[in-house]
Amino acid sequence: MAKKFPANRIKTHRVYDVWEIACALGCHRQTVIRWIKAGSLRAETTKKPWLIEGKDLKAFLGARHTTITAKLVLHHCFCLGCKAPREPDGKIADFTQQTPETGRLTGLCPECGALMNKVVKRVDLEAIRAKIEVTIQKASPRLVSRADPRSNVTISHKGQTHGKTQQG
Fold first, then answer.
1. Would 96 disulfide with which of 30, 88, 105, 137, CB 3.0-4.6 Å?
2. What's this model's pTM, rounded to 2 decimal places?
């Protein structure tokens, strides 16, 4: 997933060079140069140092932020291989409960075959089942707690002092 850079560190009425942007955003200067060469960040490149207006940088970061966050349809999962939201292959997915309120929906991407995951609320499960076939899997045994937890640790509390402290 692409990193979100803090646009609030950029002043609109200021002009920046590549180094200043890299320091303000906490990224490498080569990242800023890549944005400029790709044409997505507007800059004055006729002479050195390359200059970027603050308003252009803020607009670029805002547009980049909206492309990073994708609102998914309830029964879609995000494929990291394709970098796009997709419906699971064959409209089949598995649901594994993680907490009493949420669980993980897992399916295969129809385009690249990669495993897709999505955390969903348990109350939304019926709406998802109306669109795709969902198989509910058993929770992992490590998540299930025992009624009588057994511990092989004995706790004995003695007043000990640290070896480096002065005594006396």
1. 137
2. 0.47
Classify residue 168: in a domain, yes or no. Answer: no
* Residue 141 host element (H or E): none
Q: Give the Å distances, CA to CA, from 118 to 91, 121, 159.
A: 15, 10, 50
Q: What is the mean pLDDT of residues 82-103?
A: 87
Residue pLDDT, tens place only, 103-150: 888 999 998 888 998 888 988 888 888 988 888 887 666 655 555 556
**Prior bond of 49 cis (ω within 30°):** yes
In 3-state terms, the chain is what percent helix, strand and coil (to 5)? 30, 25, 50
Instruction: Print the domain residue range for 117.
Output: 77-137
